[in-house]
Amino acid sequence: MNVLIADNQGITRAGLMYILQSVNEVESRCVADKAGLIEELKSCPNGVVIVDYTLFDINDAAELLVLGDRFPTACWLLFSDDLSTDFIRLVLASSTRFGIVLKDSPLSEIRMAISTALSGQRYICQRVTELLLRPERKEEIVKLTATETDILKDIALGMTTKEIAEKRFSSFHTVNTHRKNIFRKLGVNNVHEATKYALRAGLVDSAEYYI
């Protein structure tokens, strides 16, 4: 069984490689970006992908689901920090080949999640399960940082992640991480929903938006 580790944190990659060393008949490799992930999946489409959605260069839920559709025989285990409830619901509803375990889960649960994915089944960690079963609360005021607010404005005005990075003299990865944090805080899954929030909040003038 082939396992692809798509995670930008060296300590996380090392930890996952250590866990996988104790599993028989498993060959694990790390990929640094989306292009590398796609190339590996082309040659080994039936493996398991352990991906940190929060930090990896996948723009949004829609792009993740496109990858899932493109490689339907792969099993995906999202191994990330906090994810929005709307994002979790969307991904889990899209396919039974997506599972989720949070990075702060107990080691025993992380091992179980990996073992379950290797058997071709979906695993949903305890904290995510409790989150999904929790009664919905009234919408709370979203607190964005000044940087996140500026980036949200640019997103609403139709700028791409690359364009925003060039404008801010930042790396693509930095802006992409901000983008994911914005989407998580707002509880949205795509640019359209984020733009609607920006318009409702008065961050972007409607006249400016339609130019």
Describe the fold and architecture.
With 211 residues, this protein is α/β, with parallel strands linked by helices. The chain is built from 11 helices and 5 strands, in the order βαβαβαβαβααααααα. It has a 5-stranded parallel β-sheet with strand order 2-1-3-4-5, with helices on both faces. α4 links the parallel β4 (75-80) and β5. α7 (146-156) packs across α9 (172-186), α7 (146-156) packs across α10 and α8 packs across α9. The longest helix has 15 residues, at 172-186. It starts with a strand and ends with a helix. The mean pLDDT is 88.
Helicity, in percent?
40-55%
Secondary structure category: alpha/beta
Mean pLDDT: 88
Radius of gyration, Cα only, in angstroms?
Answer: 18 Å
Estimate the strand proportion.
5-15%
Low-confidence stretches: none
Number of helices: 11
Structural shape: globular
Largest sheet report: 5 strands, parallel
- Identify the strand order in the major beta sheet: 2-1-3-4-5
Q: Distance between the terminal alpha carbons, to the nearest Å? A: 52 Å
Instruction: Please tally the β strands and state the result.
Output: 5
Order of helices and strands: EHEHEHEHEHHHHHHH
Explain the layout of strands and helices:
Blueprint: E1 2-6, H1 10-21, E2 27-31, H2 34-43, E3 48-51, H3 61-70, E4 75-80, H4 85-94, E5 98-102, H5 107-118, H6 126-133, H7 146-156, H8 161-168, H9 172-186, H10 191-200, H11 206-209
Parallel strand pairs: 1-2, 1-3, 3-4, 4-5
